[in-house]
Specification:
Blueprint (H helix, E strand, L loop, with lengths): L29 E4 L4 H9 L7 E5 L2 H6 L1 H8 L4 E5 H8 L4 H10 L4 E5 L5 E5 L2 E5 L13 H16 L4 H18 L6 H4 L3 H15 L7
Parallel strand pairs: 1-2, 2-3, 3-4
Antiparallel strand pairs: 4-5, 5-6
């Protein structure tokens, strides 16, 4: 379940979606541009009079295949991009994810988050690299929506803390991975609808134990 084959894409109501940003949202410090047509993403950017502290974008191969020039215009205006490993390779033309991230940063984003499904996620910023593992699960029921859940957890942490440093971005990646690990446990949004804060805290501790170790160098 770590790869996908797109057989068809039906935009439905999103094909003619024209977002209107409410006045009360126009002073947002953090903006997340969802995985929609680049023209929709650009329309949101243009409605915000003062540039936010951080602008993040999620996109996919469909937009790279069909609207690449428009997508590149949006990418040039953002701070963070979240894509999966296949999309990073397609966008950059590089197989190595390190080289891919370098090329994507040259397009505009300061931070590149590359999602690798059951193999975790990578965060790149200049020469800094951070790897967040995916929590080993006994069973993955449905991976649909895990990427969106990751993006929500990631940007939610940034919005809550207001800290856009690399160190806090690392924590945001863990927060996103934490929520995504719940999403895959049931079909659709079922698991997220009944998720408790206690469960989130307990699983966050699991992530901490998974990545902490002591080593003696001699």
């Amino acid at each position: 379940m770590n790869t996908r084959d797109t057989l068809a894409t039906e935009l439905n109501v999103l094909a003619n979606f024209n977002p209107v940003v409410p006045e009360s949202y126009k002073d947002a410090k953090v903006v997340m541009l969802g995985n929609l047509h680049p023209s929709v993403q650009m329309a949101v950017i243009k409605q915000i009079p003062v540039r936010p502290k951080l602008v993040a974008l999620d996109t996919m191969n469909f937009w790279m295949d069909n609207t690449l020039p428009e997508l590149m215009e949006v990418i040039a205006k953002i701070d963070v991009i979240t894509i999966n490993d296949e999309e990073a390779r397609q966008l950059s033309g590089e197989y190595s994810l390190v080289k891919a991230a370098q090329k994507i940063q040259e397009m505009g984003p300061k931070y590149v988050v590359i999602k690798k499904g059951e193999h975790g996620a990578l965060l790149f910023n200049d020469d800094n690299v951070f790897f967040a593992p995916a929590l080993p699960l006994e069973e993955v029921f449905d991976p649909t929506g895990a990427g969106d859940t990751f993006a929500g957890g990631f940007i939610g942490h940034i919005a809550r803390t207001g800290d856009i440093s690399f160190e806090n971005m690392k924590r945001a990646v863990i927060a996103g991975s934490n929520l995504a690990s719940f999403c895959v446990e049931k079909f659709g949004t079922e698991r997220m609808e009944n998720l408790t804060f206690k469960e989130i805290q307990e699983r966050l501790l699991q992530f901490k134990l998974l990545t902490q170790f002591d080593i003696e160098l001699s």
